[in-house]
Amino acid sequence: MLKSLTALYLLVAASVALPTRHSKRDDHNAGLTWISKDSSLPKIVLYNTGDGTILAGSPNGRLDTTNYGGPIGGLTPETLIESAHEVLDIAQIAVVNITTEGSGGAGSVNADPDRFLSISMDAHKRLCSEGSDIVGAVMAHGTNTLADTAFGVDLTLNCSKPFVATGAMRPNSALSADGPFNFYDAVRTAIHPEARDRGAMIALNDHLVSAFYATKTNGNTVSTFVAPDQGYIAQFMSGQPYFFYSPALPKARNHFDPFKLALPLPKVDVLYGYRKSSSVFTHGLGLIS
């Protein structure tokens, strides 16, 4: 009896440890490689910005949720998919790497307008072109500027197909990492028929929010992305989005054709002032004589 139980335990442990069985299939016409278990499943594109907590690990143990980063324990887009391998039960995924750098270097904290325009223009070609069989897109992004990039995509991607941004507030090495489930929720949204015609969205912490209204409200907690006045679009339960209302776009949302925008975009500096603040900067810029 003991031998039988031991054998059963080893069999179960081995099956859990085995990597997910999937295949890679090159699509030379689209220039994509599809990761899939079933070629009949809907297709989505994963935009990998190459950074962010969702891909990060920590050398300081599983309780570290603030000082993570570096080469230890980090994920690639492929290992992110492996960590949430259930996504391959519902979709085929092709990774598109976006490698733009801001003036301060790589990373979401230094992201500049080139990033959202690069993503938007690529997504427009892949999702919105006539005859495209790609049903939606997911963007994995660092949360420092996730709302900014998603907002830029929302204003420049004029397509009915879902575009869902996601990230994480805890590294993948944490005791209770939120990245894999956030990623699964984003993929589930991207293939969901009720997610169409809503503009870009952000999926984090079991909730879906419009990228047009979303803001990051806390630097540490998982419930950071909210739309304080407009509320959530949907709530996730067991990996399924439950939408609160029918598809609609934000009323004040405008669309800008990304292919007609000249790069680099002109910069507009914002100077914060207060009563009795120094006038050195405003005098220096010639704003006050």
UniProtKB/TrEMBL annotation:
Domain (L-asparaginase N-terminal): residue spans on this chain: 43-246
* Swiss-Prot/TrEMBL keywords: Signal
The family database entries (InterPro entries) matched by this protein are listed as:
Asp/glu_Ase-like_sf (IPR036152), Asparaginase/glutaminase-like (IPR006034), L-asparaginase_N (IPR027474), L-asparaginase_N_sf (IPR037152)
A Pfam family annotated for this chain is Asparaginase
Q: Which GO terms describe its molecular function?
A: asparaginase activity
Q: Does the keyword Signal apply?
A: yes
The source's superkingdom equals Eukaryota
Signal peptide positions are 1-17
Among Gene3D superfamilies, the record links this protein to: L-asparaginase, N-terminal domain (3.40.50.1170)
Reply yes or no: does the keyword Protease apply. Answer: no
What SMART domains would the database entry show? Asparaginase (SM00870)
The name this protein carries in UniProt is: L-asparaginase N-terminal domain-containing protein
Query: What organism does the record attribute this protein to?
Result: Fusarium irregulare
